[in-house]
Amino acid sequence: MRGEMPEGDTVWQTARRLDDALAGPPLTGCDLRVPRLATVDLTGRRVLEVVARGKHLLTRVEGGLTLHSHLRMDGAWLVYGHGERWRGGPQHQIRAVLATAERTAVGYRLPVLELLRTADEDRAVGHLGPDLLGPDWDPDEALGRLLADPSRPVGEALLDQRNLAGIGNVYKCELCFVLRIPPWLPIGRVPSPERLVAVAKRLLEANRTRRARVTTAHARPDRRLWVYGRAGRPCLRCGTPVRAADQGRAGQERTTFWCPVCQPEPPAQDPSR
Question: Per the database record, which ranges form the FPG-type domain (predicted)?
């Protein structure tokens, strides 16, 4: 199974940890280890807040600046106390260090790291749809974007951050299972599609403060998710072996998990209706 990007709930948790660690006191250290930012020094400035926008992180610094980062597959921001040993990886994987007198935030393997004017944040995140965990959440707008291409498979439509921001491959699979629809069903044929955005919102809200993601009613590690990662194992609802296959355009495929019994293809619509 391919590695997966952190999803909206995980990025939201990362933003909260960074905000708790950095916001308020002046920065006592700044080291941005990418060529474009090698001469940038934010020492002495205060971090105003760190917020998530979908899967993006925006660290807003006084003076009208924003440090924009994205974790993609392998990136991570870890927070250490004063004098604590850094354990996130070797030195050559560090891309950013932001420190206050008490805490240090270290960004490892960050594939995206850029400094923007805060007024220009839309350059980085303006293309995103409504954020499931953000103040801009608008279910009607999200639904309209999803249905704009009715022939698109629902699994692909859910992963497109231009439709709604925050869903990754885990939630895509789990949402389709909960709503009993196959991930390859055209989005225009999904019964009551407004339920997609409502259930997505509910699942991410429920998990944004949990250490372990849960979409079932079970706390056991092997029963927290309905189908994701369970290829060949019994469906938790009906016992049928869960199936897995690649889905998506060439070069952008993700492994999709589904139960062929619980998520049957609905009958074609009667063209006379």
Answer: 226-264
- Per-residue pLDDT for the chain (273 aa), expressed as one digit of tens each? 455 678 999 999 999 999 999 999 999 999 999 999 999 999 999 999 999 999 999 999 999 999 999 998 899 999 999 889 999 999 999 999 999 999 999 999 999 999 999 999 999 999 999 999 999 899 999 999 999 999 999 999 999 999 999 999 999 999 999 999 999 999 999 999 999 999 999 999 999 998 889 999 887 888 999 999 999 999 999 999 999 999 977 767 889 999 999 999 876 543 333
Domain with CATH 1.10.8.50 in the chain: 139-258
Q: What is the DSSP letter of 242?
A: B
Just list the catalytic residues.
6-7, 55, 254
pTM for the model stands at 0.91
Burial class (CB in 10 A: 0-12, 13-18, 19+), 42: buried
Class of domain 139-258: mainly alpha
CATH fold of the domain at 8-125: N-terminal domain of MutM-like DNA repair proteins (3.20.190)
